[in-house]
């Protein structure tokens, strides 16, 4: 078998499961569970199961699309053109700006579809391809359990010409690498601020019932803020624990990630650095500036929100300080040298 570089990423358990390789592998040789898995042509089990066509052909496309191999930006704020606060009338995790942007992109025909995730009543995530503005209503609110957003692109690449992506930093990074190396059909990337995410079973079977001491069925909202992990319940009560009590339960790849603000996105969005009920907005590209014009008259803007960019930069530095050593240690084990902090 050829030796794609992503095999080493997988073997060292730092695959982010962004899904970029899954959606673009021309042989369909990569499948996604909690991490990518490459179908080996030398593994006779695949032939028994009838999967002979779907095995690695050694084209090595996947290695050009992997965020872990591509590496991280030393200064993830170098490409920020504008920073401000915004909120819409859409009910969301905070300001609802991601939702109103997604709706506007679909309403105006700027995109044919948007890939993202929705959640069920058990906080399980589900990949979704949104083609109508009303589809966006199913995706509101932050999900702290992970799903492989970019793996949902395989069918849209065949059906549509203008695709939008909503995702956390590794997914925004993977989407940008697809644009640069594999397909120009992704026309806008909306990136979310993210410190870490969790496997669904860990969140629902460990963190909520054991660490938080709550019944999962009673939880209506989860959030990170003010140094704590918050769960809000149906009775209107807010429950919290300090972040260190849950951080170590995050997915292992998250402990190696050095991107907090989705540096590869056209627009980055979160709820940090702004008052409660507002989103922070970081415009990073000319495309991002153009796309935000679609909603500028539909949202309330705050030119100089507080605590502002200082807090976002502080949290980004914290993530880098916590994770860069782990990431660089793994880079030393790889047989290739593309990775690193550049």
From TrEMBL:
<dbReference type="GO" id="GO:0051911">
    <property type="term" value="F:Methanosarcina-phenazine hydrogenase activity"/>
</dbReference>
<keyword id="KW-0411">Iron-sulfur</keyword>
<dbReference type="InterPro" id="IPR007516">
    <property type="entry name" value="Co_F420_Hydgase/DH_bsu_N"/>
</dbReference>
<dbReference type="GO" id="GO:0046872">
    <property type="term" value="F:metal ion binding"/>
</dbReference>
<dbReference type="InterPro" id="IPR017900">
    <property type="entry name" value="4Fe4S_Fe_S_CS"/>
</dbReference>
<keyword id="KW-0560">Oxidoreductase</keyword>
<feature type="domain" description="4Fe-4S ferredoxin-type">
    <location>
        <begin position="6"/>
        <end position="35"/>
    </location>
</feature>
<dbReference type="Pfam" id="PF04432">
    <property type="entry name" value="FrhB_FdhB_C"/>
</dbReference>
<keyword id="KW-0479">Metal-binding</keyword>
<keyword id="KW-0408">Iron</keyword>
<dbReference type="Pfam" id="PF04422">
    <property type="entry name" value="FrhB_FdhB_N"/>
</dbReference>
<dbReference type="InterPro" id="IPR007525">
    <property type="entry name" value="FrhB_FdhB_C"/>
</dbReference>
<dbReference type="GO" id="GO:0052592">
    <property type="term" value="F:oxidoreductase activity, acting on CH or CH2 groups, with an iron-sulfur protein as acceptor"/>
</dbReference>
<protein>
    <submittedName>
        <fullName>F420H2 dehydrogenase subunit FpoF</fullName>
        <ecNumber>1.12.98.3</ecNumber>
    </submittedName>
</protein>
<dbReference type="Pfam" id="PF12838">
    <property type="entry name" value="Fer4_7"/>
</dbReference>
<dbReference type="InterPro" id="IPR054922">
    <property type="entry name" value="FPO_su_F"/>
</dbReference>
<dbReference type="InterPro" id="IPR045220">
    <property type="entry name" value="FRHB/FDHB/HCAR-like"/>
</dbReference>
<dbReference type="InterPro" id="IPR017896">
    <property type="entry name" value="4Fe4S_Fe-S-bd"/>
</dbReference>
<dbReference type="GO" id="GO:0051536">
    <property type="term" value="F:iron-sulfur cluster binding"/>
</dbReference>
